[in-house]
Design brief:
The protein is an alpha/beta fold. The chain has a single domain, classed as Rossmann fold (3-Layer(aba) Sandwich). The protein has a six-stranded parallel sheet with strand order 3-2-1-4-5-6, covered by helices on one side. Strand 5, helix 7 and strand 6 form a beta-alpha-beta unit. Helix 5 packs parallel to helix 6.
């Protein structure tokens, strides 16, 4: 059985899983790895995956999760021809203060309630892997599942500081990148250090559905989703409401 046939079989099983849980594909057992964090810890089970499946990885604090996270995921599923999207709920963003960050399990539970789509899997695998940086998480995933077609999903607002991420160039060499422009940033984001450095690897948006099958470094920008909602704005709104009650 070749990789394409195997992937189609898993897609069929995933589609049936909603009707009959007994047909749900197996999830991977825990195991350990050398270097770059632990490949599994405790009772970790990775979300549904198989060789040839196209899986988007959407990392973030999800503090709080909101409709724009869901809309961006559904947008990527359609525009990139993805089979699934994993929400990687992080223990904490190394570039942000985390003192007031709600507990991981609390944010993960809120994310599951927000996702509301069988193709979106919410996971705390970074905490289980004991990885703090995206590049280390990606290295583990690529080492364990080299034939899964992972794609890194990120908002265009992240481009401004992408060059500050640990080993950001290694990230671009590990998996294709899809940047989702929701209209939150202007053209200056695309003139930032990182997007300028990888400009020659940018794929035309009209070919976006081919992105998961391409060899990195390669990236594209998806336009057309206009939602200005953000976790930062929601936190400010909740803080303002709390202050008005005191």
């Amino acid at each position: 059985m070749n990789e394409r046939v195997a992937a189609e079989g898993v897609r069929s099983s995933v589609a049936k899983a909603g009707k009959n849980p007994a047909t749900r594909p197996r999830r991977s057992p825990p195991s350990l790895s050398r270097g770059g964090g632990r490949e599994a810890c405790g009772a970790l089970r990775l979300p549904i995956h198989a060789p040839g499946l196209r899986i988007g990885l959407f990392g973030g604090s999800f503090n709080p999760p909101h409709e724009a996270h869901r809309a961006a995921s559904l947008f990527a599923l359609k525009r990139l021809g993805l089979d699934r999207v994993w929400w990687l709920v992080t223990p904490g963003n190394p570039l942000k203060h985390t003192a007031s960050l709600p507990a991981l399990q609390q944010r993960a539970a809120a994310a599951r309630a927000c996702a509301r789509d069988p193709r979106i899997d919410v996971t705390d695998l970074e905490a289980r892997f004991e990885t703090r940086y995206s590049v280390d998480t990606l290295r583990i995933l690529k080492r364990r599942y080299p034939r899964v077609r992972f794609v890194w999903l990120m908002g265009a607002d992240n481009l401004v500081n992408f060059h500050r991420w640990k080993n950001w160039r290694a990230i671009t060499a590990l998996v294709p990148l899809a940047v989702i422009d929701r209209g939150l940033v202007g053209l200056e984001a695309f003139g930032a250090r990182a997007p300028q450095a990888i400009a020659r690897y940018r794929l035309a948006e009209r070919a976006a559905r081919t992105l998961p099958g391409r060899r990195p470094p390669v990236w594209t920008v998806l336009h057309g989703l206009k939602l200005t909602l953000s976790s930062t704005a929601l936190r400010r709104r909740m803080t303002a409401k709390s202050a008005s009650r005191t």
